[in-house]
Write a structure and sequence with these properties.
OB fold (Dihydrolipoamide Acetyltransferase, E2P); 27% strand; 3-stranded antiparallel sheet; disordered C terminus; mainly beta; 241 residues
Amino acid sequence: MSELIYSDQELQDRNIQYFIQSIRTGTPGIIVSTDGKMATVQPLVNKLFKGIERKPAVLTNVPVWRLGTQAARVSVPLNPKGGDYCIINFCERPIDTWVSGDGTAKAPKDGSTHDSRGAWILVGLEPFQEDAVDLENLVLEMNRGTDKECKVTMKPDGGIEVKSPLSVLIDSPEASFTGNVAIAGTLDVDQDITGATNITAGADIIDAIGAMSKFRMNYNGHVHVGNLGNATSTSNLPDAG
């Protein structure tokens, strides 16, 4: 076997190339498992060395990024058993001592740069066969592609659409509507409601109302109380007296 002889410049170039190739910056990945704080992640871009493809090692104890501050947080559900795509980012220095600390400045254990101990994941990067990003609307989706899919769409013209296969619950001591209210189906009030239900409305909402157990209705200055029954107009509403 003949001995390979390199010039000083060739050796320098090879060393630089090896160093560059060893720097980890970012790569697509898939979550193997997670508890919502840390994740085990498989990088999805294999290494290629002299024509031989090699699968990267699984990364463990990788922090999961989430949008939030001290006062607010946006959280998306993750499958604890894995399957969600992500982008794996690598900090310039290891962050394992900082992540396990109290949030104050911490020195790394050594002088390593851009290695697996500096990894953190950003969930959401997907391959091209997944659905395209909505270019016009702000959309919040849950249970995508299932019969339980629900969606909130906020449009550039100010309109908002809420879609759900089940009921929509508003848990509040008081809900106010300042504009017109249109109801395509029936308006039901829980049979166990305590106190009175106050509605100030025009004929459109009255015509859409179904059965209510307790109510106090102010219709054009005329107050009705008691049981509405199956009334479809104001003609048989009980008066306050």
